[in-house]
Amino acid sequence: MGFRQLAASFEHRAPRILGAFFGVAAVLGTLSCDRKTGTPPWNTPETQTTAPPPAETAEAEDEIEIPEASESVTVSSETVSPSGLRFITYNVENWLTMDRYVDRKALKGAPKPESEKQAVVAILARHTPDVVGLCEIGEASDLAEIQEDLKAAGLNLPHSHYTGGSDPTRHLGLLSRFPITSTAKPAETEYRLGGQTFAINRGILDATIQARGKSYRFLGTHLKSKRDSEQGDQEAIRLNEARLLRRHVTSILKTNADARLVVYGDLNDTRATPTIKTITGNYNDPTYLTSIPAKDSHRDAWTHHWALHDLYSRIDYIMVTRELRKDVDFPAAKIIDDADWDKASDHRAVLAVFK
Q1: pTM
Q2: What is the pLDDT of the chain when averaged over all its residues?
Q3: How far apart are CA 333 and CA 41, in angstroms?
Q4: Is the pLDDT assigned to residue 55 strictly greater than 90?
Q5: Which are the contacts of 219, defined by CB distance < 8 A and separation ≥ 6?
Q6: Structure confidence by residue, pLDDT tens digits, 296-319
Q7: Which residues contact 305 (CB under 8 A, 6 or more apart)?
Q8: How high is the pLDDT of residue 177?
Q9: pLDDT over threshold 80, residue 50
Q10: Are 97 and 37 in contact, with CB atoms under 8 Å apart?
């Protein structure tokens, strides 16, 4: 980004000093993380359209108390959660080939800069996940590159799954220490908007893993960003994509009420919005999803920084079904705020630990 160095200098101060202002701004939907070729550049002003969120009732996870987060430290994959599982969701910001600006120069068909790739790999290797759900992957070869780079850094995740939707540029990937026993596709991947039929942009990743005698079914997605689209209103697109994800979750739980689902990804909306409420569902419903609370070492909860407007927002989530909630190590969940986070991506990774 053109504003990386400026954003880095405010890394620890801006969220606290201007946190209240940014929280309001985030709800109004003024963030974005879509840098796809053909969309307005990051430094181009744009008009946002966001409906006000509906009133919400208190939910059980609001009452979960999270202890003070400790500073990020290097951990060993052989000693952390030996009987459980460490999972990270991470939007790695355009690990793909595209037209981009690097060092204030316009480049055609350029890969993600090597320094940014190295920063992504360093963060993941440092926090030793057993499973990683990735957003903004280009080709299958890009996912393979991350896998190889992680192995060279000491983190071996030999099993992978790669999928996408109607967007030919950005895809979803999953890397795992444990075997992927099955994959699936949602029955519904299209929706109607403005009299036309559209397919979900980045798709829904569905992969099941057996780890240390327990089953985990991961559902990953990357919903429409808050940027104008030729398809129609960006909020309506995102909400329709959220409905497709919710229908897939419900269909799985109707077949198996005890399914241990992990729903994750860059949802491009804040918690009180219709998009997030559609995905989590009704609290009194057996299919309700709990969004795992997480904060960084400074007790801040934002996961995305939009440098152009200096906005900090929580738009990346890890959610679980009621059956899996009892295995969540809530105090261990955190937003990774290593010093080099902004060199890697405009998002910060989110970690969840299962007992």
Answers
A1: 0.79
A2: 83
A3: 34
A4: no
A5: 204, 205, 206, 245, 248, 249, 261, 262, 263, 264
A6: 999 999 999 988 889 999 999 999
A7: 7, 311, 312, 342, 346
A8: 98
A9: no
A10: no
Residue 230 backbone dihedrals phi, psi, to 5 degrees? -70, -20
The amino acid present at 232, given as its one-letter code, is: G
Note the pLDDT tens digit of each residue in 221-236.
999 998 888 888 999 9
User: Which amino acid makes up residue 121?
Assistant: V
* Residue 347 per-residue DSSP state: B
The model's confidence at residue 21, banded by pLDDT at 50, 70 and 90, is very low
| Helix, strand, coil % in the chain, rounded to nearest 5 | 25, 30, 45
| Encoded amino acid at 29, one letter | G
Cα dihedral across residues 14, 18, 21, 27: positive or negative: positive
> Does residue 72 surpass a pLDDT of 90?
no
User: Residue 288: what residue type?
Assistant: Y
CA-closest candidate to residue 61, choices 343, 264, 290, 338:
290
Cβ pair 185, 207 in contact under 8 A: no
DSSP character at residue 20: H
Q: What is the Cα–Cα distance from 157 to 1, expressed in whole angstroms?
A: 29
Find out whether 180 and 211 touch, Cβ atoms under 8 Å. Answer: no
- What's the CA gap between 164 and 178, in Å, rounded? 22
Of 52, 54, 290, 35, which is closest to residue 170 (Cα–Cα)? 35
* Rounded-to-integer distance, Cα 322 and Cα 286, Å: 7
